[in-house]
């Protein structure tokens, strides 16, 4: 019988697959999603420029921007993950499976929010802070936005907790060769980059507290009607 963490991971993977299939069926949608994701990535670059310049935190910023959120097609990684779930549940602790499930939920939720934003944005007009904030407010989905921030913090805290555990590092190392042999190097790289970024940080409390504070403040400002809560992304 599947554990609760395994069942939730499978559910999130099905959610992600539906998003990938919709994207693959429409090059126009894929291009629009990538434009929006790139614009938001530039906003993140500006919001966390101080951390990106700090060698202690730079890898974590890059991991969140490129592996959990950003422009591009993540269908291969997620398909790889779906294939390897039975192996993972035999090798990795259940807590790590739960963390990977949360990461997949974060990825899927972020893409669902982007998809919804596209319906409210005045496309194909260029994006601006004003039009972005108006679309964001129009969706009136504060609960989903709060969940997105909570998942960022939860995934970060779990990674921070597990990177110091010898058993977890050994399990990841044990998966490396089978993953490569099975053509799952993209997935293995994703998992290892996340662990490496947080191990390099050597303590993520300040980083995660700052992310939670800044993202919550921006969310509240937008919902409260602020038309320019951050500068135009460059």
Description:
This protein has one domain. The mean pLDDT is 87. The chain is mainly alpha-helical and 234 residues long. The protein has helices at 4-24, 27-47, 49-52, 58-68, 75-91, 94-120, 129-139, 142-162, 166-181, 185-201, 205-223. Helix 1 (4-24) runs antiparallel to helix 5 (75-91), helix 1 (4-24) runs parallel beside helix 6 and helix 6 (94-120) packs across helix 7. The longest helix is centred in the middle third of the chain and has 27 residues, at 94-120.
When the domains are counted, the total is: 1
Give the N-to-C terminal Cα separation: 50 Å
Structural class: mainly alpha
Q: What is the molecular shape?
A: globular
What's the helix count?
A: 11
Low-confidence region ranges:
none
The overall average pLDDT, rounded, is 87
Output the helix-strand order: HHHHHHHHHHH
The major β-sheet equals:
none
Report helical residue fraction: over 70%
Instruction: Estimate what percentage of residues fall within beta strands.
Output: under 5%
